Amino acid sequence: MSSHREAPEIAKDPVADSSDLYAFVTPDRPETVTLIANYVPLQLPSGGPNFFEFGDDVRYEIHIDNDGDGRPDVTYRFEFTTEITNPNSFLYNTGPIDSLDSENWNRRQFYSLTRIVRGKEERLARKLPCPPCNVGPLSTPTYNELVRQATFKLSTGERVFAGQRADGFFVDLGAIFDLGTLRPFQQLHVAGKKIFQEAGEPVNATDRLNVHSLALQVPLERVRRRADRYHWQEPASVIGVWTSASRRQVRVLGDRVAADTNAGPFTQVSRLGNPLFNEVIVPMAQKDLWNTLPPSEDKRFAQFVERPELAALLPVLYPDVFPNLDKLNRSKKARTDLVAILLTGIPEGLIDGFTNSTGDLQADMLRLNTAIPPARRPNRFGVLGGDLAGFPNGRRVTDDVVTIALRAIAGLTVPLVDRKFQPDEAAGAVTPGLSAADVTAPFLRNFPFLGTPYDGFNNPSAQS
């Protein structure tokens, strides 16, 4: 999974767990960049009466680095407050919610949005309302209208939304974490060949589950540093993006007469740049540490990118399928292709007409060359599929990041830095077998792009 329950401690704190991050030049507004950060993963739609929400005690931030130092030059900060309108009811709503100020809605959430540029804070909005969770056809009969009411265009040029959406990430968790099984190739697995006679059908484990999204659409001039002219070769065209969640260092539990209190400075407990980085690159013992650090400290983890554990496991799990990768692993050569993709950006000269390098500093950020226009016909394999507007050049909601990452780790991208290396045939075919078509809720053509959240009444698990 991209970053759902990716570290031991943050798995116990889903309200602060960043699950997916997207950054792309907006197809219908190419003068803007769309940034989406998801939190509170793996939501069961029927999870009432206490439906999911953002944390009032969590500071959520989306960071942009535009000079390659792995530190934020522009930050958008979201802070939430929750209000109960009827303290004598246990219900989330007592009738249909047909507007954001409906008297039937008992638990409402609001947020402020602050823009921080090199330490200087500018409050862009106060007390913007979130929409409710999608409870069901009786409680939220016109849900898309509520989303429209909760989408705001600010006087400073940003468009913003914060609330529940359908999880658009597609991954076969049940197979992958069962000793690295890929169902389309399960009969070739070292243990699976004793059980399976043929390929299996993949299962999207995150389908029909919801998340909470922070979605921003920002004019490009608000995120890029100044340049005379922006083009794909201009360093100022490239930005690095990551998201983080922070909590205060001290929490004191209340007693019968005193409420819980939070005190002290905020400390980071979660972050996310490239999908799957903490998930499958960082070893278990260091995952929680990684979540507390800024990207500028990621040289500490470069060794795990240069020699990823998964690359060593593939030839073991799938005997005789990856002989060239096995030979490369045994040579102990550093995977400089993965270092470029994940930690520095891809320098000019490796791929015709493309770079998203931010310099020599090693930092896990989602790098986006904002001078590369949106693709008219997007390819789900992004740059690997010849589509320079897709992952790892930013990330769009339909990009097949699991397959892209697997193929890169399997050796498909090694020829970028070593033209003598011949990838195994399987490296260009390895996949969990899923695509955006395996997400039940249709993606939207415009902001906020992720689909309408699944409602609790129609969720199949509630009917089983």
Automatic annotation (TrEMBL):
A Pfam short name: DUF4331
Per its record, how is this protein called by name? DUF4331 domain-containing protein
**Which InterPro entries has this protein been placed in?**
DUF4331
